[in-house]
Amino acid sequence: MTENRHTGPRNAGGFPIQFSRLRRVRDSPAARLPDDVPAEEKEQRRSLLEKLQTQIAGEINASLLGQTVEVLVEERQRGRWKGRTVTNKLVFFEDTAERRGHLVPVQITWTGPWSLVGQAVG
Fold first, then answer.
1. What is the dihedral of CA 79, 84, 89, 91, to 10 degrees?
2. 3-49, pLDDT tens digit by residue?
3. Which 8-state DSSP code applies to residue 15?
4. Domains by residue range for the chain, with CATH
5. 92: enclosing H helix or E strand
6. What is the Cα 1 distance to its own chain's centre?
């Protein structure tokens, strides 16, 4: 894992990490230490990390607003096409053409922390 001061924790591939589950590994030296942190404190720390990661992801995705990104289309979901960018960002867009398995340029019109919405270009 690497650290980037602008985008937060990242894995070896450079992708943001979502802190969804934090635990000690049984065979690690940390497993031999006493667990003296109350459950309530652990939950507060986990919640703080999730809020921070949501904020960071939102800021990163907001930088894509108005840009055109290439999307590999996976499937239709709730009447829209769903696909992913080369950096694994989830993108939804509407189009009547069959797009499954195609690379489609999509202009981003809305951003959230965990997904993007746009319009197919061309």
1. -20
2. 343 444 455 545 455 544 555 567 788 888 888 999 999 999 999 99
3. -
4. 2-62 (no CATH), 68-120 (2.40.50.140)
5. strand 90-94
6. 16
pTM: 0.72
CA dist 57 and 31 (Å) reads 31
Contacts with 63 (C-beta within 8 Å, 6 or more apart), sequence order = none
How distant is the alpha carbon of residue 94 from its chain centre?
21
**Separation CA 122–CA 120 (nearest Å):** 7
* Residue matched to tokens 């497993």: 31
Q: Strand 90-94 vs strand 116-120: parallel, antiparallel, or unpaired?
A: parallel
